[in-house]
Amino acid sequence: MTFETILLDKQEGVGLITLNRPDALNALNSKLLEELGEALLALDADADIGAIVVTGSEKAFAAGADIKEMSGLSFADVLKKDMFAEINSVFARVRKPVIAAVSGYALGGGCEIAMACDFIIAAESAKFGQPEIKLGVIPGIGGSQRLTRLVGKSKAMDMMLTGRMMDSAEAERSGLVSRVLPTEDMLDGAMEVASSIADLSAPSVALAKEATNRALETTLAEGLLFERRAFHSLFATEDQKEGMSAFIEKRQPQFKNC
Ligand code: HXC
């Protein structure tokens, strides 16, 4: 596959997608969003891949949706193309874990793409924000919904109504990111985390992702039932036998993803 606006690489069971519009701080134009969606679906379907990392450059994960591309559009234009619906639906379809590895600016749509991933590993240099309010719009790729679920109403309102940026320490304190690493080590660290997930049993990884996402969509009783049934179903896998035997025999498990 060849792309204009992203780079795609595979290393030790991990698919690495690098947003690559350096002249525009990786601003998300329609080509980039289309290519990001294609790459995510291709890696999700690739039997050699167990986890996916999405990253940008050291200066910017992405500085938002492409303001120059959007500026002249009318209400009818954006409604007709249902702007940004497709990338959200791609993220909803991807069943493998997706980690956002964020260095520098993750603003507007950049912050939203990071939050659409399953979790965020940030460099100390990372800066998150939803500055759309300063452009006369609001978030459109899920910011008002995902940021509020991640950091709570008070901080989400603060971020969305002022458009201010949050540094990596505040982002970790607030629950927006799962870990912060030194900037120069961040991508290697995120790749190591992804590779360690790719080494696990794929059916249990997929069900852990589904069960965790279910917590955001349903009641506690329904979520507990979903989790229990998913847990029960994993006793039908060879990997459950292997994982538990390996523990008892004090050796590393050899998972076969079945
Ligand atoms: C298009 C962008 C861009 C963007 C930066 N660039 N962000 N182009 N869309 N979102 C371009 C600049 O125009 C410039 O190109 C080049 O990238 C470098 O940017 P500079 O501004 O010169 O860099 P710097 O001074 O370091 O400032 C970095 C920055 C600033 C603080 C991140 O670029 C910035 O504020 N960007 C916009 C952030 C933003 O508002 N994001 C939200 C977008 S709306 P040239 O050719 O001039 O050199 C959004 C909506 C989502 O995401 C969905 C709802 C509608």
From TrEMBL:
<dbReference type="InterPro" id="IPR001753">
    <property type="entry name" value="Enoyl-CoA_hydra/iso"/>
</dbReference>
<dbReference type="InterPro" id="IPR029045">
    <property type="entry name" value="ClpP/crotonase-like_dom_sf"/>
</dbReference>
<keyword id="KW-0443">Lipid metabolism</keyword>
<protein>
    <recommendedName>
        <fullName>enoyl-CoA hydratase</fullName>
        <ecNumber>4.2.1.17</ecNumber>
    </recommendedName>
</protein>
<keyword id="KW-0276">Fatty acid metabolism</keyword>
<comment type="function">
    <text>Could possibly oxidize fatty acids using specific components.</text>
</comment>
<comment type="similarity">
    <text>Belongs to the enoyl-CoA hydratase/isomerase family.</text>
</comment>
<dbReference type="InterPro" id="IPR014748">
    <property type="entry name" value="Enoyl-CoA_hydra_C"/>
</dbReference>
<keyword id="KW-0456">Lyase</keyword>
<dbReference type="Pfam" id="PF00378">
    <property type="entry name" value="ECH_1"/>
</dbReference>
<dbReference type="GO" id="GO:0006635">
    <property type="term" value="P:fatty acid beta-oxidation"/>
</dbReference>
<dbReference type="GO" id="GO:0004300">
    <property type="term" value="F:enoyl-CoA hydratase activity"/>
</dbReference>
<dbReference type="InterPro" id="IPR018376">
    <property type="entry name" value="Enoyl-CoA_hyd/isom_CS"/>
</dbReference>
